[in-house]
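$ run holo --ligand "pyridoxal-5'-phosphate" --emit tokens
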Amino acid sequence: MHSKVTRALFDEYMVPNYAPPEMIPVRGKGSRVWDQAGQEYIDFAGGIAVTALGHCHPALVDVLTQQANTLWHLSNVWTNEPAIHLAQQLCQHTFAEKVYFANSGAEANEAAFKLARKYAHDRVGPQKHELISFQNSFHGRTLFTVSVGGQLKYRQGFEPVPAGITHLPFNDIEALEKTISERTCAVVLEPIQGEGGIIPADRDFLLAARNLCDRHDALLIFDEIQTGMGRTGKLFAYEHFPEATPDILTTAKALGNGFPVGAMLCREEIATAFNFGSHGSTYGGNPLACAVAAKVLELIADPDLLAGVLTRHQYLVDALKHANDNAPVFSAIRGQGLLIGCELMPHFAGRGRELLMQALDAGLMVLVAGPNVLRLAPALNIPEADIDEGMTRLSSAMQCFLNDGGT
Ligand SMILES: *Cc1c(COP(=O)(O)O)cnc(C)c1O
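-- output --
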């Protein structure tokens, strides 16, 4: 028995590193969520690009329930069938030949960065340890991943941070040419910068990065934690640029559709640098997580589902443009598939969270990506009727936002 859970208890008991709104969601189904008071919301946030198949997808509930009645956990002292099955599936669907399992995006990246260093260290020597990453990028919140990430605010106050990391302007081929050297072990990037404001990498930049890495014997790492698992209309975003296929790819977020799991994928030759005892995780490859993820992968790799992402992209972007004609608040609407960023006009700069709260009041869950960009990452299978209802609610929020702005 416990007393009613209230938002006030959050402030009483939780470390104050988050600032959630007053309402507490208690239930979800598909692209709809309900709070404690029974108020219904349309979900255009998807748990930050996580619930790609919607809340409580029946096939995933089935798989999870079955696995929960079979085997929960062993540790990596033993292996398990769901983990091997998932690894095999991931390799069959991608360039990768080997997989390492983690429990989150940051952990998958941590493994990728450590592997890049170890691979260079063992083959060439300790001087080949430098990582090149990009301004505004986001790679997670562990000390190594905030250090590789290109946003100072996530690193400040946590110094000293790991050394040997350079941050260059994103999409700047010349800067990369000038900086990459025989000391570079890897270049790390997001095909579309997510948290940084939904900034797509240019095709030419990706091709140049691939060529420069080859020329300097460095690895190319794609952080596809947000762009992967169907989000852009391909299973992974690198498939849009086959000539720039990475050496290492990380995925998490939608991989578990809400069950915590992450993975690092790589070519076989690179994988050998992680030999017995090099790296590990107690939960990594947990049977519950892997059973769910294998089903998620099967459902998302379906060509019809992926084609539906492109249809929904066009439908949602058209609706956003229409809403913006009636209540002009955005200067740009960009992104790919169902990862869409709406940039606020310069005179509304810094007010993204305000619009997010107004959308919530209208019954719509959305995200921001930085202070100036409203971010939408709905489920890949969101029904048209839910897009319509969500857009009705967003339009009225945009109208309120405009009216507030005028006073
Ligand atoms: C969310 C995200 C991460 C971090 O994932 P966590 O599961 O929160 O650790 C890393 N990289 C990118 C691109 C992300 O979007």
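-- notes --
The chain has a mean pLDDT of 97.
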